[in-house]
């Protein structure tokens, strides 16, 4: 009897405007065309209650502890309801942001520090980490310019330059510390160039997952 293989958990990270969402749907299509069962989702959000929490988190003023706890409240529901059951059923999950974003934004950007967030991570998902995390890295000016082209800004996107720089620095530090899991994408490259590089990496992941 063949045993069902656990799905892979892939996350997209980076500051606002880096280009994550531009590649999530495309990545899912690439994986589907290679015969992978896959879903895409996002944080905060991904469940009915999580999407309501997202609205609050992006638009309602609140203190830092409340913000951090709500991020993890949305996350725990997302894990239990969507992510963990999918992975166990052998479905791959592509997620637009996950716990690295809480380290970077609340820990770095908002200067909470990392230890509280590590405690919450330990509570909510002690045994789960993404199998691969793409960090879309861009300098401030480019992220700002891309955001200006798009939409009304949320609470995070309205933050000062120093917030952006601290957030980016924590992302880059985590990528350096956990180099096995992270793949840093030079997100100043064109969408086409980024997709070329992602294609190679996705091919390698699919090939690995098919080895006995
Ligand atoms: N490599 C790229 N070159 C030029 N423009 C890009 C590139 N990637 C994304 N963009 C454009 O930049 C804008 C922001 O991209 P996107 O919404 O994917 O960013 P994001 O990282 O998901 O941001 P957020 O965190 O705010 O959701 C969009 O208008 C998108 O078309
Ligand atoms: Mg996005």
Descriptive overview:
The chain is built from 8 helices and 5 strands, in the order E-H-E-H-H-E-H-H-E-H-H-E-H. The chain is globular and about 50 Å long. Helix 2 packs antiparallel against helix 3 and helix 4 (99-109) crosses helix 7 (161-177). It has a 5-stranded parallel β-sheet with strand order 2-3-1-4-5, with helices on both faces. The protein has a single domain, classed as 3-Layer(aba) Sandwich (Rossmann fold). The protein starts with 8 loop residues before the first strand and ends with a helix. The protein is of the alpha/beta class. Adenosine-5'-triphosphate binds at residues 14, 16-22, 136, 146, 149-150, 187, 189-191, 194.
Largest sheet: 5 strands, parallel
**What is the strand content?**
5-15%
Order of helices and strands: EHEHHEHHEHHEH
Helix content: 55-70%
In the CATH hierarchy, the architecture is 3-Layer(aba) Sandwich
Ions and ligands: adenosine-5'-triphosphate, magnesium ion
Mean pLDDT: 96
**What's the N-to-C terminus distance?**
14 Å
Strand order of the largest sheet: 2-3-1-4-5
CATH topology: Rossmann fold
């Amino acid at each position: 009897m063949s045993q069902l293989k656990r799905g892979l958990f892939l996350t997209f990270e980076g500051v606002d405007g880096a280009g994550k969402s531009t590649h999530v749907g495309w990545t899912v299509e690439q994986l589907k065309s290679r015969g992978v069962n896959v879903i895409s989702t996002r944080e905060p959000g991904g469940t009915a209650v999580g999407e309501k929490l997202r609205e609050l988190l992006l638009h309602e003023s609140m203190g830092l502890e409340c913000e951090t706890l709500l991020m993890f409240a949305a996350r725990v529901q997302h894990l239990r309801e969507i992510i963990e059951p999918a992975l166990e059923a052998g479905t791959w999950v592509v997620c637009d942001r996950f716990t690295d974003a809480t380290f970077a934004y609340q820990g770095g950007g908002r200067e909470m520090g990392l230890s509280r967030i590590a405690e919450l991570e330990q509570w909510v998902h002690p045994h789960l980490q993404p199998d691969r995390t793409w960090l879309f890295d861009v300098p401030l000016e480019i992220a700002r310019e891309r955001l200006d082209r798009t939409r009304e800004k949320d609470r995070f996107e309205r933050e000062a330059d120093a917030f952006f720089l601290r957030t980016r620095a924590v992302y880059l530090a985590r990528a350096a510390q956990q180099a096995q899991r992270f793949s840093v994408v030079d997100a100043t490259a064109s969408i086409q160039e980024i997709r070329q590089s992602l294609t190679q990496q996705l091919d390698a992941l699919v090939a690995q997952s098919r080895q006995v």
